[in-house]
Amino acid sequence: MGASGESGRPLLAVDVDGVISLFGHDRPNEEAPGDFHLVDGMPHFISAATGPRLNRLGQTYDLVWATGWEDRANDHLPAILGIPTLPYLTFDGEARFGTAHWKLPAIDSYAGDRPTAWIDDSFDSSCYEWAESRRSPTLLVPTDPAIGLEEGHVAALESWAADGYAVR
Ligand SMILES: [Mg+2]
């Protein structure tokens, strides 16, 4: 058992809007192919490549949804992406599109002292200050909301965990 929690694995907090559900791109999205899916009556462009990438990351990390979608992420995304249902954080109505600071208390509490990575398109200075202040290894992985979770992010997250949480 390592210092990284009960499973001995690091945690990965996963945003949805701007990571899996993309926006702000040209259509068709040549950099991140996918399809529109109706989610609660709203069309969302879901990047098809994110399913296999999340499954790969699930071999190294314990994934948790960190999104304003909360439990609704499990209602829609596993079937679309071919991924397992995941634990999810809740935010007591604090969710604000285009920002991420409201996620900090929930992520901090859930992560405890585990090594934690977080992938999101909306980090602000308070997120980086939080990462700096943690005593456990912490990695923030920003995405372009038009492209989302890319191959390079997966490789960086895999090597961060494999290299003892050293940033190169
Ligand atoms: Mg987002």
Q: What portion of the residues fall into strands of 2 or more residues? A: 15-25%
Could you say which overall geometry the principal axes of the C-alpha atoms support?
Answer: globular
Assembly form of the protein: single chain
Could you estimate the helical fraction of the residues in percent?
A: 25-40%
Mean pLDDT: 92
- Radius of gyration (CA) equals 15 Å
Instruction: Please identify the structural class as seen in this structure.
Output: alpha/beta
Q: How many structural domains can be distinguished in the coordinates? A: 1
**Level-2 CATH architecture:** 3-Layer(aba) Sandwich
- The CATH class is identified as Alpha Beta
Would you tell me which CATH topology applies? Answer: Rossmann fold
Q: Please report the number of helical segments.
A: 5
- Secondary structure: number of strands: 7
Main pleated sheet: 4 strands, parallel
Distance between the first and last residues' Cα: 26 Å
Low-confidence stretches: none
Hetero ligands: magnesium ion
SSE order, as H and E? EEEEHEHHEHEH
Biggest sheet: strand arrangement: 5-1-6-7
Explain this structure to me?
The protein is globular, with a radius of gyration of 15 Å. The longest helix is centred in the last third of the chain and has 12 residues, at 151-162. A hairpin with a 2-residue loop joins strand 3 (34-39) and strand 4 (42-47). The chain has a four-stranded parallel β-sheet, sandwiched between helices. It has a three-stranded antiparallel β-sheet with strand order 2-4-3, with no helix packed on it. It is built from five helices and seven strands, in the order E-E-E-E-H-E-H-H-E-H-E-H. The chain has a single domain, classed as Rossmann fold (3-Layer(aba) Sandwich), CATH 3.40.50. The protein starts with 10 loop residues before the first strand and ends in a 6-residue tail after the last helix. The protein is α/β, with parallel strands linked by helices and 168 residues long. It binds magnesium ion.
